[in-house]
Design brief:
The protein has three helices and no strands. The protein is an all-alpha fold.
């Protein structure tokens, strides 16, 4: 009876021991987790560009390369109205405004219409031609007569001008001759008076120098 009671606690302790041993074996059998990557592992540095390696320069636009000019709109090309349907292709040799919806007048330098005034008068008759020749002869004769009359008038006026000029010259010449004779007489009289004064007062300190100056001017 007592052996039965002792066997129950022993079996319970053995069961606990077995459970503990089994749990330890299970924990030992589990593999260890993978180690985390080390943060101190050196990382490869990025490849730096060599300072001695020439770098290709970007292709620059050539300043001498001609640039295509934008196509300018022709001043003679008609512009289509908004909302209008595009015109069909023009036939070869047709003008640009041939197919326009609105009639367009051609430029002035392309207008080759003959707008000269046409003489529709009838040809002159022989009598009219003879009368024209007679009129031309009369006009020529009148021109000749008028020219001779003009020459006669010019000759008369020139002769009268020369006659009056000669008479005026003669009248002035007489007056000039009379004035010159009086001037010569007065100069000779003045020379005689100054010579007499200097002969009478040759050493006068006040008037003798002035009389000599005036006498020399009269001599000149």
């Amino acid at each position: 009876m007592s052996s039965c009671h002792c066997a129950r606690p022993l079996s319970g302790a053995l069961l606990v021991l077995l459970v503990w041993v089994g749990a330890g074996s299970v924990s030992v059998a589990q593999p260890a987790p993978a180690a985390a990557p080390s943060t101190l592992k050196p990382q490869p540095a990025p490849a730096a560009a060599s300072p001695l390696k020439p770098q290709p320069a970007p292709a620059a636009a050539s300043p001498l390369k001609p640039q295509p000019a934008p196509a300018a709109a022709s001043p003679f090309k008609p512009q289509a109205a908004p909302g209008a349907q595009p015109a069909a292709a023009a036939a070869p040799g047709a003008t640009p405004w041939a197919g326009a919806a609105v009639p367009v007048a051609p430029p002035g330098f392309l207008d080759t219409a003959d707008k000269r005034i046409k003489d529709e008068r009838p040809a002159p008759t022989p009598q009219q031609v003879a009368a024209l020749k007679e009129l031309e002869n009369e006009a020529n004769n009148f021109t000749k007569i008028g020219g001779s009359y003009r020459d006669t008038l010019v000759a008369l006026l020139q002769r009268e001008y020369l006659r009056k000029r000669y008479s005026q010259d003669q009248g002035y010449m007489h007056q000039v001759d009379a004035e010159e004779a009086l001037e010569d007489k007065a100069r000779l009289s003045a020379i005689e008076l100054f010579e007499r004064f200097l002969a009478k007062y040759p050493n006068d300190p006040r008037y003798a120098p002035d009389a000599m100056f005036r006498l020399g001017e009269l001599y000149f």
